[in-house]
Amino acid sequence: MNAIIDCPSPNHDERTLPVTMLVLHYTGMQDAASAIARLTDADAKVSSHYLVAEDGQVMRLVPEDRRAWHAGKALWRGISDVNSASIGIEIVNPGHELGYRPFPGSQMDALVPLVADIVARYGIEPANVVGHSDVAPARKQDPGELFDWETLARLGLALPRPRRNLADPHWTPGGFLLALERFGYDVTDGPAAVTAFQRRFRPETIDGIADGECRAILLRLLLDREPAA
After folding, report:
1. How far is residue 147's CA from residue 28's CA, in Å, rounded to a whole number?
2. pTM
């Protein structure tokens, strides 16, 4: 892993939960300098533990034992104080509003060992390596459909998209939301939750409609996570 540059942010407080999650974000700003300026601005009241620039440089903004302010109002698998339970990584990318683009290889090459190190040290399970849109579907869409989840999944660092043994359970729309909630999502805004799920596990079609393919993927994810006794 490349040397990490310390770039301290004043925006953090005490954790109240053990670290069980890793949340990935994109910065959604014009460039790395703009993002760092905001994440270290006391008035902005936002931060993350790490930032990964497009050239692969990694910066540490908040010590891991402190609660960074990256997730905002969020929920995942019953945990509502996601900031207390997670490490947050901001990945430099202009985002959907400023010219969303693929994440370059140099950036992923730096992100992968950082994620691997964090996951190993805290024993974070792949199902808890998530995007900001997963924990805040009504508000966020990052890191988005262009993020290379498949690389993390191949290395066992995130859940893979199920592609085999798929069968449509023919849930009603309400049944799909119940299953999605069981998996971990906040389904208060149903279409937003479905959209977030698609962005993560079926990114080629993101329309907020739970079709047969979405139902089959979610069923497989649930079955793989909860094997029969």
Report:
1. 13
2. 0.97
For residue range 114-171, list pLDDT tens digits in order.
999 999 999 999 999 999 999 999 999 999 999 999 999 999 999 999 999 999 999 9
Is 149 within 8 Å of 187 (Cβ atoms)? no
Among residues 14, 54, 64, 90, the one annotated as catalytic is: 90
Q: What is the dihedral of CA 141, 76, 126, 45, to 10 degrees?
A: 60
Radius of gyration from C-alpha coordinates of the chain: 17
Query: What are 148's strand-pairing partners?
Result: none
Instruction: State percent of the chain over pLDDT 90.
Output: 97
Whole-angstrom distance, CA of residue 124 vs CA of residue 117: 10
How many CB atoms lie under 10 A from the CB of residue 212? 13
How far is residue 65's CA from residue 223's CA, in Å, rounded to a whole number? 34
Q: Which residue has the tokens 């892993």?
A: 1
CA dist 151 and 76 (Å) reads 22
State yes or no: cis peptide before 143, omega within 30 of 0.
yes
| Annotation marks residue 145 as catalytic | no
Q: Which amino acid is at 169?
A: P
SS3 content of the chain, % helix, strand, coil (to 5): 35, 15, 50
